[in-house]
Specification:
With about 210 residues, the chain is α+β, with helices and mostly antiparallel strands. The protein has two domains: about 1-105, Beta Barrel (Lipocalin), CATH 2.40.128; about 110-208. The chain has seven helices and nine strands, in the order αβββββββββαααααα. It has helices at about 1-10, 115-120, 125, 130-145, 155-160, 180-195, 200-205, and strands at about 20-25, 30-40, 40-50, 60-65, 70, 75, 80-85, 90-95, 100-105. Strands 4-3-2-1-9-8-7-6-5 form a nine-stranded antiparallel sheet, with no helix packed on it. The protein is globular and about 50 Å long. The chain starts with a helix and ends with a helix.
């Protein structure tokens, strides 16, 4: 009982998870700040859109922030820093560039059949319940969400062409990938590479 009482007096922000999508600015200056806290990995990405030089094509832009630290209610990085403030159900990130308001949860933000591939660390036992084809979609959706241009006429190009959210824009999206997405791709590739060995050998190889 004594330990419960001590625990109850600790500040709530010490245990807070501020994951979510925050909106900053308006009109042409608006940006989405996507924060993900999953275990030991914290991911922060800024997303916005802009026209090309002649104003005819609107493109999505992404910047994945490195070396993020969250201490209590403070966020620190070289690119953006601020303080989280919670009033009732409203959560804000107060920065030097303005106040970013949390507008949605991560599971409602990402497009695709398997949006979790971009906002949570996937587990091998979860993926082993999927078919080879499903795992291929999970992996390639991560790239597709950034507008990766798949091989013309290929299986993935044809698959995503049928969706209402995909638009091919970039030949290489590696610089956009977050730490969580990289870990998920790494695991999916490992499962892909050892698939032909048979399901009995998969668990052994995953433990190497």
């Amino acid at each position: 009982m004594r330990y419960i009482l001590i625990f109850s007096f600790l500040p709530l922000f010490l245990f807070a998870n501020y994951s979510g999508v925050y909106h900053l600015g308006e009109s042409e200056d608006e940006k989405d700040i996507v924060l993900i806290q999953d275990g030991k990995i914290t991911s922060l990405q800024i997303r916005w859109g802009e026209f090309n030089s002649d104003g005819t094509v609107w493109s999505k832009k992404f910047k994945t922030i490195k070396d993020i630290k969250i201490k209590g209610d403070k966020l620190e990085s070289k690119d953006i820093s601020g303080v989280f403030k919670k009033t009732g159900d409203k959560i804000e990130l107060v920065t030097k560039k303005g106040v970013a308001t949390k507008v949605t949860e991560l599971n409602d933000y990402y497009s695709g059949e398997y949006p979790e591939g971009s906002y949570k660390l996937l587990m091998d036992y979860e993926l082993l319940k999927k078919t080879v084809e499903e795992r291929a979609i999970i992996k390639n959706e991560i790239f597709a969400r950034y507008g990766y241009i798949f091989k013309e006429g290929g299986e993935m190009a044809n698959h995503f062409a049928k969706t209402d959210w995909y638009k091919g824009e970039y030949k290489n999206v590696d610089q956009f990938l977050t730490p969580i997405e990289k870990e998920n791709i790494k695991l999916l590739l490992k499962l892909e590479n050892i698939y032909w060995k048979g399901e009995k050998e998969i668990k052994r190889d995953l433990n190497k």
